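User:
Note these tokens:
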Amino acid sequence: MEDEKQTLESKDDLAQLSLNWIEIWRLSILHPTTGTFNRIINDQKTGIKWGVIWMAVVTLIAWFVGPQRYLISGVAADNFGQRNGNIILLVGGIVAPLFAVVVLLINAAILHGVANLFGGTGIYNQLVYCWGVMLMPFILLAGIVIRLPMLFPSTREFTSSHTGIIVQMIAFILFIGVNLYQFYAMMVAFSTVEKLGLWKSIGIFIMTTFVIVVVFNLLSAGFQAL
């Protein structure tokens, strides 16, 4: 009887750990805490596969709802014609998710390695999973706020008026705010996975990013000098 009771309790614990995607997204954006991300990384679904899949899906959505595709396709259309601009849109929908997945895997690997040097004891698969699955609500919210000016007349008179300028500024500030909030949530997730303090995790991220930028610039300068 005692063994059966323990088995039932362990099953109940696993059921509590299993979160559906809506719950994961809700917790990630409304309660980005150590407790939340501990629940996420201990979920039965945790693994690189789902992290990669959701990063690809989120990037695909971001490509079609974000403002960058209009800028890129517009530049391509101006320089190479409207047909090529449309092709860039379609190609971007394929390349952007693949690129985002590669960036996720590489960034997670580098930061996980650096975290280990500073006492981190996390698991790489959990970091990829956590970062990959948590981004959906942030991307959707950023896509919504950047489109707030679309609720108002799109005439040149309104856009250049004081009200139009204020609306665009508010949308831009909210967009920056959402991205900063996303960065904070990702750092909390990183600190949770690696079992490090939040400020130490942020320091690792900033230091690693700085080193990567410096190395990239040195390599670029070296190639240009050849």
About this structure: The radius of gyration is 21 Å. The chain has one domain: 2-225.
